[in-house]
Hints:
By secondary structure, this protein is mainly alpha-helical. It has seven helices and three strands, in the order H-H-H-E-H-H-E-E-H-H. The protein folds into two domains: about 45 residues; about 90 residues, Orthogonal Bundle (Arc Repressor Mutant, subunit A). The chain has a three-stranded antiparallel beta sheet. Helix 4 crosses helix 5.
Amino acid sequence: MPPRTSPTPDRIDQARANWEREGWTEAAQGMTVVTSVMRAHQILLARVEETLRPWNLSFPRYELLRLLAFSRTGSMPITKASERLQVHVTSVTSAMKRLLEAGLVERRPHPTDGRTTLVEITDAGRDVVAEATEALNAGVFAEPGMSAAEQVALIDAIATLRHSSGDF
């Protein structure tokens, strides 16, 4: 694959050339895929975090609030939130603690299972997540930096990777 031309050199293209020069040609394209996806993650996460800054939210805290707002009752067990968000329960607990401190969620005992704690979104949390979602939709999600056709192709390609890894 020839390098792209631009006033700023593509560091990933340079890394690929280094891989090929070292004789790792069979791995060069895969390295380029992995590095490109990781760099894209950094770029998108920076845009998301910048957009969420006015509400003092990180993306994990936003995701937990959004999940709770989408839920039928506005609450769920921490373990269920962990499963739905596909992160370790300690990550959900950490996000929940920061949201508790901000008054955006509350802990509640489960009504029928004394061993389970529920995390529940507050009215303030609903307001914050609604405003933050509006900002993300306008500033990031509606214009992620690629055409609609490119978005579909990327979604399909990543779904293939996720499926082959047993993600679904």
